[in-house]
Amino acid sequence: MPSTAFRIFALMKIKQFHAIATFATISILSAISPVFAQFPEITCYHQDPGAHERDRNIDVTHLQLNVKFNPEQKQVLGKVSHHFNSLQSQVDTIFLDGPGIEIISASLDGKPIKTRNIPAGVVCITNLKNDFQKSHILTLEYSAHPQKGIYFIGWNLTQLPVSQPATFDPKLMTRKQIWTQGQGIDNRNWIPMIDDRSDKFTTDISVEFKNGFNVLSNGQLASKTDNKNGTTTWKYLMKNQHAGYLIMLAIDNYAVKSSKTKNGTPIHLWYYPEHPERVEPTNRYSERIIEFLENETGIAYPWGSYSQVMVQDFMFGAMENTSATVFGDFFWVDNRSFLDRNYIGVNAHEATHQWFGDLITGRHDGEQWLQESFATFYPGLFMGSVFGKEELDWYFHGQHQGALAAGKQNSLPVRHSGSGSSRHYPKGASVLHMLKHILGDENYKRSINLYLQRHQFKTVETWDLQKAIIDATGINMDWFFDQWIHKGGEPHFKISWQQLSPATNSTSGTEITVEQIQHQDPIVGIFKTPVDIAVYYTDGSISRQTVTLSQAYQKIIIPNGDAPVETKYNKSISTQKNVAFVVFDEGNYLLKNTTFQRSYFELMMQAKMATNAIDRWEALSELKKLPQAQSPENIEFLMQRFEAETFRENKLEIANQLLDIFNANITKIQLGDNKNQLSKLEDFCIKLFSHNITEIRRVAVEKSPINIKTMQPFMNALKDSSYLTIELAINKMWENPMFNSKHTEMLEQLNFIPGYMNNLLVKQAELSIENFPDKADLYKATLVTYASPYYEFRTRINAMAALKRLNYLNEELCYNLFEASLSFNSRLAQPANELIAYFKQQTAYKRLLIKSASNFDAISPEQQKKLLNLVR
């Protein structure tokens, strides 16, 4: 909702009674601001129309599904039985979600009943009387051609592409798959069901499919039966209740690698058999993640075994289906691609959902944060457990940035169905990080353990978590939840400090002034929060104090330890220590905006002396904003800090700054001004090309100028272990005249290296068009094929971008773009639509697009019409 026109629910406590009022806009709030000023106890909240459950007259306790497919027709043939208890005495009809599903037959307790289709689903005529808490079985046989919820990949590619690259092998390109994606309410498109998160049930799923394929679903594989008709029936049982949106299927000729955690949980990794060497880098730490989560929550993995399966053209990162996570095969990486993109964080996120989302499920959409915030929080803790506290702090720094960016748009709270992913994911995770810091590790773990134990296999609301905390620890955190979960906004602190002299003040120490300067209204007020403050002294000692902020303006005095000093009379006297710098919120636990002006000396000392890497990074990032940033003193300081610094991101920040300084002063080097130091800086920057940290080598390629000294480091970059660094290097080198004579040698470096999602194959084909003009048509045809359905969507997008740069369109590419524009995957459809819009600006290409669209064999008349509207 736009911040200028949002609705809020206001609860006014005036003297001894409460009044309820709903205010339509900020302007109304402004008009009544004097009223709010008179009643400081007024508390206001955003209204959330989505924070409610749907009506239903039955409670489904078990779902039994038998299903088979005609994949070439994208058809589902199923039989579903819903075991339910009546929630009302009179149940005349039962509504099942199922848009577009054709009901072949229906029965209640084995007796035929009538049904009626409406756009949203199926109405079953049951006519049950005096039926409260009685049990029944509702069975439907059906047929469906769903447009979402279940996806059929590669089944209609019966012929090889018109143009085949030399590396083309259909077995290694597109797959033949069927997979599902139920969240939020899409399973209803292939199963007639009560598709609502508040209803949880056990499942029994049987899938009949062609021999030669493997089938995965929720729970334990109970049986696998070979049929006489050339098919196999796979039967999966889920013995504990879970929500319907978590039902899943994945079908392909997968291979499976199995292992166990230290506690005995079976782990099954379903992968493409063509590349077994990718299993380890893709699924690295999978067992350890489950072990970590069991230890953190005190709750054993609740679903028996845990499977992970990759699918092609997945529209999200991954999905936490109960006992069986689906993830996009863009995470299917070798050891080199692992450097550019890996699955660790997403892996930990989805595994966390097996507890938060699957074991306990938010009762309605307003409680989405109880799933996503926890699943974003625990990966940060896992990163810290594996890679150290520096990585944990950096992870939550990133979450803070996402949350604060959303806070600039509006003040919607974390607990709100319309808050969006920035609140449900990074802000909620940041709030949980603060909660754990305030409660302490032991209290936090006890609270979460009680919360999960109480509500396992059930639905939850935020109040359940709040009650678990006070019951487990005796600590009432309602104030915390009120300002961070139920309300929106973030504090903005303006900080300053001065050292008090005992000669002029009644006390000695460091006086720190903190003002809260965030915009305030009836929803966002003054924040109450503890904060850790550290005063660092020039002698290396530190004074630390945790204080509670609760006022718009506060002064805090941290006592200054005395330091003995020898006088000329050889006597010790007491004197104040000199303050080097002050760290507000040491360790960066608090979600906040800050305004804190500091001198070059303070920031330099903080970048050098601060205990926490994240506090050193904060100082480094502020240093570059000062006038002294390009001074000889700062250049020398940064080069020294680069060698002394231990944390990757701090080294990367320093490398970025030094390269920026070098580029800003390159003219001075050429003219001989301050030549010695700048030449030393140039030598330092060149060494970055061979650094052992991938990101530092990459920034060296990105920012270093090309000259005689850097030509060989750039050539060496074409052999880098990172595919993305190679692509960055060749893009930069290709445009520089100094490398014109080396184009063929550069392209040869790319031979037989596909890269990440074929990025280097696409780049090699694109550049070969210029380098080998006699073969230009061949390489253009190669790019057109890379943009075809024979490749997964990321390869296709890369090829589309290359063809746009070449301004090349033919009839085959038109068909590839049309097919992509109709894709269920918006990450493919949007780039295709944008490329069509680009080409149709050119008269000849527009005519070709219209002609091709008229001849395109679209799935439906509606899609044909959509294409024609798109190209005209």
List the helices and strands and how they pair.
Elements: E1 8-14, E2 17-23, H1 26-31, H2 33-38, E3 43-46, E4 58-70, E5 75-86, E6 91-97, E7 102-108, E8 111-112, E9 115-118, E10 121-128, E11 135-144, E12 150-153, E13 177-180, E14 200-210, E15 214-217, E16 220-226, E17 231-243, E18 249-252, E19 255-260, E20 266-271, H3 279-282, H4 286-297, E21 306-311, E22 318-319, E23 324-328, H5 344-353, E24 360-362, H6 369-387, H7 389-407, H8 421-439, H9 441-455, E25 458-460, H10 462-473, H11 478-486, E26 492-500, E27 509-516, E28 529-537, E29 542-549, E30 553-558, E31 562-566, E32 572-576, E33 579-584, E34 593-596, H12 600-609, H13 613-623, H14 632-644, H15 648-664, H16 666-671, H17 675-687, H18 694-703, H19 711-717, H20 723-734, H21 743-748, H22 759-771, H23 776-786, H24 793-806, H25 811-821, H26 826-839, H27 843-855, H28 861-871
Parallel strand pairs: 4-14, 20-21, 21-23, 24-25, 26-34
Antiparallel strand pairs: 1-2, 1-3, 4-5, 5-11, 6-10, 7-8, 7-11, 9-10, 12-13, 13-18, 14-17, 15-18, 16-17, 19-20, 22-23, 26-27, 27-30, 28-29, 28-33, 31-32
Helix pairs in contact: 4-5, 5-6, 6-7, 6-8, 7-8, 8-9, 9-10, 12-13, 13-15, 14-15, 15-17, 15-18, 18-20, 20-22, 22-23, 22-24, 23-24, 24-26, 25-26, 25-27, 27-28
Tally of alpha and pi helices:
28
> What share of the residues lie within helices?
25-40%
* Major sheet strand order: 8-7-11-5-4-14-17-16
- Mind telling me the C-alpha Rg? 31 Å
- Quote the average pLDDT: 91
Strand proportion: 25-35%
The biggest beta sheet reads: 8 strands, mixed
State the shape: globular
What ranges have pLDDT less than 50 throughout 5 or more consecutive residues? 1-39, 564-573
The helix/strand class is alpha+beta
Quaternary structure annotation: single chain
End-to-end separation: 34 Å
- Strand count: 34
